[in-house]
Write a structure and sequence with these properties.
The protein is an alpha/beta fold. It has 2 domains: about 150 residues, Aspartate Aminotransferase, domain 1 (Alpha-Beta Complex); about 240 residues, 3-Layer(aba) Sandwich (Aspartate Aminotransferase, domain 2), CATH 3.40.640.10. The chain has 15 helices and 17 strands. A 7-stranded mixed β-sheet has the order 4-12-11-10-9-5-6, with helices on both faces. Strand 7 and strand 8 form a beta hairpin. Helix 3 crosses helix 11 and helix 12 packs parallel to helix 15. It is globular and about 65 Å long.
């Protein structure tokens, strides 16, 4: 392989990957629903709980330790996203909860007839909060449709949707169902030209590609660290001036800094220790030398190249499986425009039957709609059990790609 990333030694860092099912190694192809975590993340969480943590602001050891954990996590995510300052990083329960909370604040003073643009490629966590806000305030919803042939945005129609009443464009960085990557920089440029804000769901994109919020110029960006080898914690990036200006829905008193202002209730401090360890794990995959952000940049480049090789091997092999259809981008020359996440259907079998067959043989995949409701509706599978989702991340191997293809072929030939 022409790659600088070797998954074999990396896999030893992930205890969960050592499991077996019926005497064979388990194959984790469920990454789009949540990745496994390395020992360093487990150790960081365990150490925080073992040493003891308390709430913020106390004049004693464990409270000071908590303050240090939170500060370190904010700095780590600043580096991961290339935010301008750590105060632009907000932590919460998960991406969905953060989006519901922030959507209420953003739309607080909007007027009936103001408009929001949503996309068919999005996870419902970046759709339902805005639909409910629209219902509350009498807002108008417009949809950026998708090309069902390759599951990409009909981006040429976006200018026709934007106007002086457009207040926000909510868009996914990459589809958690079919893997298509959005041109966020271009979408943001068009939205800002119309005076609209841009809210980006990067949950699925984060483990697969480099995020640079300054280059993207998006106004808000959300993710969940359990999708990129960390604990179940949601992260929101927002431009400082916007976070500072908006009214947060929380109990009194709300601290003045945007970070404390937006973090409702007591955070999972042990998870935040894990967030820092997660970013450090990713950075360690990069080239030595330079600061943490530079290491993250090179690490994500290595991951991207390696995962493209896995994608190519899967797509070439999938074309040989009788009755198997892959939905989304299948052009080998366009792999940079997708993540290694594949929605597939096998002729003669329901998605549940395929997923169960694979699961019984130690290959873990999801079936259904995975909350990509609009995507499945447009493809015509929402009421038919959805599709099977096979997702690779950097700890997956070529042999695992071959194994899932072998099992799909075996199933296809059995009927």
């Amino acid at each position: 392989m022409n790659t600088q990333l070797d998954p074999i030694p990396l896999r030893a860092q992930f205890p969960a990957l050592q499991q077996e099912v019926n005497g064979r190694p388990a194959v984790f192809l469920d990454g789009p629903g949540g990745t496994q975590v390395p020992q360093s993340v487990i150790d960081a969480i365990s150490e925080a709980l073992t040493l003891g943590i308390s709430n913020h602001g106390g004049p004693f050891l464990t409270s000071a330790r908590t303050d240090a954990i939170v500060e370190a996590a904010r700095l780590a995510m600043k580096d991961f996203l290339n935010a301008r300052q750590p105060e632009e990083i907000i932590f919460g329960q998960n991406m969905t909860s953060l989006t519901f909370a922030v959507s209420r604040a953003i739309t607080r003073n909007w007027q009936p007839g103001d408009e929001i643009i949503l996309t068919r490629l999005d996870h419902d966590a970046n759709i339902s909060p805005w639909l409910m806000a629209a219902e509350d305030h009498g807002l108008t919803i417009h949809w950026l449709d998708l090309n069902t042939a390759d599951c990409t945005h009909k981006l040429e129609s976006l200018p026709g949707l934007l106007n002086e009443r457009t207040r926000l464009v909510a868009v996914t960085y990459a589809s958690n169902a079919v893997g298509s990557i959005s041109d966020i920089k271009k979408i943001t440029h068009m939205a800002h030209a119309a005076g609209a804000l841009v809210y980006v769901d990067s949950v699925h994109f984060a483990p697969h590609g480099l995020i640079d919020v300054q280059e993207l110029d998006c106004d808000f960006l959300v993710s969940s660290s359990y999708k990129y080898f960390g604990p179940h914690t949601g992260i929101l990036y927002g431009k400082y001036e916007l976070l500072d200006d908006l009214v947060a829905y929380k109990v009194r008193p709300a601290p003045g800094k945007p970070a404390g202002k937006w973090e409702t209730g007591t955070q999972s401090f042990e998870s935040l220790a894990g967030v820092t360890a997660t970013v450090d794990y990713i950075a360690a995959l990069g080239d030595s030398g330079g600061d943490r952000r530079q290491q993250i940049v090179s690490a994500m480049n290595h991951i991207k190249q390696y995962e493209m090789e896995l994608s190519e091997r899967f797509l070439r092999g999938a074309a040989e499986v009788p009755g198997l259809r892959v939905y989304g981008i299948t052009d080998i020359e366009s792999l940079e425009q997708r993540t290694p996440t594949f929605a597939v259907g096998l002729k003669g079998y329901t998605p549940q039957e395929v997923a169960t067959y694979l699961g019984d043989r130690g290959l873990f995949v999801w079936h259904g709609h995975y909350y990509a409701v609009a995507v499945m509706d447009d493809l015509g599978f929402l009421d038919q059990g959805g599709l099977v989702r096979i997702g690779f991340v950097h700890y997956n191997t070529v042999s695992e790609v071959d194994r899932v293809l072998e099992m799909l072929t075996e199933l296809a030939n059995s009927r």
